[in-house]
Amino acid sequence: MKTQVQLWVRLKVIDLVTQTARSTLIEKLNFADALRGITHYWYWGMEAEGADAKSVLAEIDRVIRLDSAFTNQNKHLYRLTAGSGQVLGDLPLEKDFGVPAVPSPGPAADAAKGPSRGTAGTGLFAFDCLVRERRRDREAGFAERLNARLKGTKVSDMKHGEVWRLIVGAPSEKAALGDVEKMLVSRSRREGLLLNPHYQEYEIIATTRVEAEKPAASEPSKG
Amino acid sequence: MGQALQGIIQVRGKSDSEIATLLKKHGFNITPGEARRVVELLGRDPTIVELTIFNTMWSEHCSYKSSRGVLKEFLPTEAPNVVLGPGEDSGIIRFAPAEDGDFWCLVISHESHNHPSQVLPVEGAATGIGGIVRDVYCMGADVVGSLDPLRFGDPSGPKGQQVISIARGVIEGIAQYGNALGVPNLGGDVIFDRGYDENCLVNVVAVGLVKESRVIRSRVPAEARKTPYKMILIGKPTDDSGFGGAAFASEDLAAEEKANRGAVQVPDPFLKRVLSEAMKKVFEAAERRRITIGFKDLGAGGIACATSELAHAGGFGVKLDLDKVNLALGHYPPAVVSCSETQERYAMAVPADFVDDVLKIFNEDFELPHIYQGAGAVVIGDITNEPNYTIETGGSVVCSAPVEVITTGISYDRKGKPRRRRFEEPKLDPRRSLRDDFLAMISSPNGASKNYVFRRYDSEVQGRAVLRPGEADACVIAPLPGRKTGLAFSVDGNPFYGLIDPYQGGALGVCEAARNVAAVGAVPATITDCLNYGNPEVEEVFWEFSEGVRGIGDACRGIGHLDHEGAPLPVVSGNVSFYNQSESGKSIPPSPVLCCVGVVEDYSRCRSIQFKGEGDTLYLVGDILDELGGSEYYRIVYNTLGANVPKADFQRERRLIRAMVEMHGLGWVRACHDVSQGGLLTALAEMALGGRGAGALGFTLDIDALAAFDLPGEKLLFSETGCYVVELPAGIESEALAICSGNGVRLTKLGDLAPKGRLEIVHGKKSLAQWDLAELGEAYLSGCRSIFGIEPKGVSAHE
Amino acid sequence: MNSSLEGAVAIIQFPGVNCEYESAAAARSVGFEAAIFRWNEDPRLLDDCAGVILPGGFSYQDRIRAGVVAAKDRIMDAVTELARRGKPVLGICNGAQVLVESGLIPGIHWEKVDLALAPNVMADREGYYCTWVHLRKEKSACFWTRSYLDGAIIPIPIAHAEGRFVTEDALVLDEMKKNNQIALRYCDAWGVVVESFPVNPNGSADNIAGVSNREGNVLAMMPHPERATWLRQVPEDLGGRWGERRRSAAGEAARMEDEGPARAFFAALLDGKGGAR
């Protein structure tokens, strides 16, 4: 039995890198209107083989909780998913929209609303952008490291990188994607920030149309 | 004013168990007895803020309650070169005259960050560096270096994987912080032993330079009597760092995030660098306008500890308004705001008419609030002549006590009982292969090169490096542009000696540190210490601790300061870390860590350990005795500690140091290395290989040259009696002999250097062992590769 | 607040850099005034400077990627304009990363990011690496290396985690070679460009250690010349000519202040019209 497994890891304390990314995108690259939220994760995606999805996931969970190459429970939240729908971990991924990028009046006001909607007629999209180095040596290393400790389960086809979840307000998904490309890929001094295409590349691994249901702003300081 | 105090906690009239429940509910660590003492001091029930302050300040870490008595009894802290002894954040010694009768001073502080590093190695070690450099900055000094003596568990033992992970994380944390801040690494060491499996030791030293006239004291200056002074809080916005329990967690957090949140201190060397650049401008402005300021960094105990101590040291009081404190997003109770351990903060007492300039420098010129959301400089209170310590918030008074009371310390007389263990010397097996045994030693984690560690640290930043980590026994910097003066640094502390005899552990730590500094020709000028032990409430452990301190004190007095007759080597800074024990209660080996700073007149005479010249001659300066107890040879080859631990001989150390300093002063020394861990053979191998692990000059030692010491071959090669190997040019033997006999130390000729790439041991005509320098170099360089180099099975995404 | 910097070398202090003081000292060692210039000061004050140095360190803590956040700072508008006018601009280590992320280097297509300084690739370790290496001065129009003879071997320290020059666009590399923009290469103590670790300390394409723009007035180099400006900074145990020179000066304090192997980078400013217009 084979299944796709994904591991998402995020800091539960303040993420200074994400704070800096946010303020640079808004203040220096003029995305104040478009960028509504940003969150940063470390990501591993792999194919896992074992008896059944539940036991495979539980075994991978056991190992990644103990190995600080993947998670340190003292500073990380994580989410482990299997293709068949099982989920383990303490990170509420589907509601995790990070710091509202639009400057807000204060903590009380933040708590009252979620990531602010775009103006009438525009949409709000969350794109999970996986940024990987073009060199793949570290990915093979992670697979080896897991396989050395897993019992009854084996992983392969390891993908590893950082995921920037960018919440963008735009008239359409296509327009939003255009903005995302401009936030991600450093093509010149004035364009792009999050990756340098000469040693990194990206792919969008998930897209969500965001509804402003619950205040994600309960975590204002975690970036 | 007579405002009612808010937040009173009832302690009076309650039983011990009721008080214990109450304390537990609030997450306090103080005992019911200590809580009653608070009532006694205040003359009433305390407020929650006041009790929180005492809870923090009376922790072992802040109060030194178990150690204070012993430290005072044994350690010498005064000498003619001391400007400031222990008491403020750093110690200060004079080391060279400056213009106009002023003096250049070295500022030094020494601390530990053991427990946090075991839990979060990267952040723990990084904030350890962050904290120690703050102690130096706040004296008005420029930080010029750091040292990192580290102890980890057994990388091949049952907890090996975790040990390696922690070791790598700690190195990465130190590198991340020190490199970013621009503070060069000036030495350190790494020692592995199973005794540290569950308790790594991360000790750190920071050193800085300042002119004596520019030293800034951690006290409100006397000028505040006549002109109003304000208290300014500078740096990161205050959050709830250090208050991890549910009792203090911010209401806004989701439940799953409350757990452990306060335990993580987020290091930010970038903010620290910007702060230190801004501070420089403030100091310059204060100097120009002849303004005296008081300055202190915030550590454990946060705002309350720093501001009360600033006031108390000057004889003043202070009134704080917590509502003015810049907070990270969230709502925190006053006890948290007063006592949290948020990093990268300072408190400054300045005259009221200087406030605007200070705020402008931090908030506008260096854009602190923009660089870090919520950071900045803000006035939080007034200095008062009335020596009362008052904290107000929301119009209510939450703390009000005489400053003297709120800063009252606490001290216990612990009992010690000798630990009785039996030690035996092993029976030496003459059939063992010397060649194989030595290869095993030089490639073992403790014997091998630590290049994978120190090449991760920037040792070149600031451009002052003369001798770098790995190149010599002590790192040397040229601190004063255009002048010959040099400063030498070494950290030492062999825990294996302490396992046999804790007194020798302390004494030999000082001897070795001083010896390392003398090995580059510097005169030892000051000592700092970090005393890492287990649970002081266990009598055997407390005995280990007091024996260790007694040894340190005796060594400092016995060796003394060569330039000041009758004066000891002063201990100007130090730290005690207790409770380093496993969950099952087993304590770590007694681990005093010592740092020695030396002053050298002419740094151009400081030489690396590497062999320099074909035709030069090697000599042994000193003696070799039957002292292999705790030696690397016994541990690696015979898997035992042995019994004959080296016995510190302070007079002999002093004479040896003087002889080395004189020899260097005459400019003859081409290379010099002390004999310590691994004995004479290790010293010779390290000299042949040098810091880079490659050399062209070899050496043949005939052990007949050491016949006078009357010991079997293995003991000659591996005894760890402290002495020196020195390389001198041909033709000055009689002068060298004169210096040595003038100092009452033995000089023994070992032989000439040879251009063959080989190290060889012979006995007369019989060859006992030989090693190609290439194979020796490979064994030496690669010994720690699997621990600190590329891990074959992938590396962390996070480190 | 700095007054006009006419004739002085401006050392740009982004928040988080840490080599600014020794860079200033190196510029002074050849007789130039040097001023530390904060990133948020009035950029017009730079107009008459003799040259600009972007020093080493960790601007913005290397967040996201070394040099990228500083590259977006407003002061880079002024630095770009000065570079366009032909002023000498030297980016050292983090400064080199800023120049690459601003597109000033290689500068083949205006402001385009054509290169990356990627994480080091090394044989037996990962991450930050501090050691002494050797550079070979390549034939180029580079202003900053003009005091060296072609082929000169320069011992110098490096200290970085992201020093690997790399590009996805092979045409860029061809163009750089065609224009002689590769100013410095890693080599061994005898000047041989050995392509493997440790002679190449970080896996840089073609052993590239320093790249200039076409005109030659801008140089991005990863090693630190300000740390090899005086003889006393040379490690005693270094092989080769400079190591011998350093060892022979042992015991002679006055000689410690002699010129070191990298002072000539700063000496290039002397007698420098520097191409400034």
Strand content of chain C: 15-25%
Helix count of chain A equals 5
Radius of gyration of chain C: 17 Å
Order of helices and strands of chain C: EHEEHHEHEEEEHEEEHH
Taking the sheet with the most strands of chain A, its summary is: 8 strands, antiparallel
Strand proportion of chain A, as a percent range, falls in 25-35%
Unreliable spans of chain A: 102-114, 116-121, 213-223
Biggest sheet layout of chain C: 9 strands, mixed
How many H/I helices of chain C? 7
Percentage of residues in helical conformation of chain A: 25-40%
Q: Please give the order of strands in the largest beta sheet of chain C.
A: 2-1-3-4-11-10-9-6-7
pLDDT < 50 stretches of chain C: 273-277
Query: What level of helicity do the residues of chain C show?
Result: 10-25%
Structure commentary:
The complex is a heterotrimer of chains A (223), B (799) and C (277). Chain A is of the alpha+beta class and 223 residues long. Helices cover 26% and strands 34% of the residues of chain A. Chain A is elongated, with a radius of gyration of 18 Å. In chain B, 34% of the residues lie in helices and 22% in strands. Chain B contains 27 helices and 26 strands. The longest helix of chain B has 22 residues, at 160-181. Chain B is globular and about 90 Å long. Mean pLDDT of chain B is 93; it is low at 245-260. Chain C is of the alpha/beta class. Chain C is 20% helix and 20% strand. Chain C has helices at residues 20-29, 68-71, 75-84, 94-101, 170-178, 240-248, 263-267, and strands at 9-13, 34-38, 51-54, 89-92, 116-118, 129-137, 153-160, 164-166, 182-187, 208-212, 218-221. A nine-stranded mixed β-sheet of chain C has the order 2-1-3-4-11-10-9-6-7, sandwiched between helices. Chain C has a two-stranded antiparallel ribbon with strand order 5-8. Chains in contact: A-B, A-C, B-C. Chains B and C meet through helix 8, helix 10 and strand 14 of B and helix 1 and strand 6 of C.
